[in-house]
Amino acid sequence: MTHVHPTRDDGVVATLSEVVGGPVGDHAGPRRGAGVSVLGVLLAITALTFALGLVSKTACADDGWSMTDASRYTHACVSHVPDAYSGNGLVELAWPWSGDRETRLRYPVTEEPAAVGLWTYAAARVTQVLSGSPDVGVRYGEPSATLAESGAVDDERRLFVVVNAVGFALLALLATAALAAAHRRRPWDAGVFAAAPVLAFAGIVSWDLLPVAAVAGALWAWSRGRTALAGALVGAGAAAGVWPVLLLLALALVCLRDRRPSALLPPVVTATAAWAVLNAPAFLSGRPQWERFWQAAWERGPDEGSIWTVVAQTSGLTRDVGLPVSWTLVGLWFLGVTALVLLAPVRPRLSQVALLLVAGVLLLGLSYEPQQALWLLPLAALAHPRWRDLLIWQACEVVYFAMSWWWRGGLLSSGADTGPRFYWLAIAVHVVGTLWLVAMVVRSVWWPEDDVVRRSDGADADQPVVV
Question: Domain residues of the chain, as ranges?
Fold first, then answer.
């Protein structure tokens, strides 16, 4: 066979394959004229997974995404997308970084990154074209609260979610294609992403699939030696969510291990250029409004979902104390990853290093929202394509996803005054699941003979696997 088949490579997949006849045979080969490629199957699985995620949001969609916060949480169909349309002025096609006084009195400045702001503005334009191009000038005379509750805006909000969902689905398909092409002999590893429960549950909660798709593309470009393109995609991802910058740090560590610091220059230059280009419209049209995203990120204290939530609720930890402690621990985590990269018997793969860095931020950062599990998904698919371990991690994330939102919806409140213990339990489950994934990746780095990707590619210390 031209590639590693999952039923012969992974015990979980082999067991599940018994339903359809068992693992592929020893003499199996490519079938001419079959008409279905590995990529075609993976894209179909991605589409099905994403569609199931949309079905799970039916309760909110049927209500026009105007349900109360409690109802959204109890139905587990929370999404920030519809709120952006009527809450940030897109219903009036207001430029997200406008400094117009009347606009700012009616709507708050967006706290999303520049690329997300451009995406939502474009989606609002498409929505209004599909809605018959309503006269937004008439809307300026209505109170913003009244306008948000009107029937016409209700229909547009539904359509706005659909427009975004179509875009997100395309991004998910592109990410799957990139991951499938990253390892020539292991295209099926992308199935971890394509069939991920996390993708179904969190795919349209927010705009996290923008940086996720960019990171998947960057990993593919790096695997092909297209370092400049990889950097450009990292820069695009960083413009939609700062965390892809950690991929550059992972590249720096890999280049340090290889003693090739010059190899880092092209991706850094193109990443900076791509980030600057995507931020330029916001920066040039309204610098104070553009700075709001950075101010909001800096001002955030111990927030929902992180271990610091538990610490703050049990000890009264404040932002002034929590912020430096959090960043200190993240710095120590990064130092630990650096030591691992430099001391490992064989140079770790890029996806492994990037996963460890991102996981440190998710575990020790001041906040954690359910959809942030998507950040690890493309990295996990390449770093540790073991279905058992990835399903354990994702099961923990699904439990956290459900318990945290049900807690916020009041379903897990006990009659006794016991505090938010169910919420703390949800956070603990998320932390344990992520640490499990981290431990599995660290093991494959320290004992490279256990790395299934390296083993299947027949690589050794002289020919390290790239991603």
Answer: 6-17+37-457
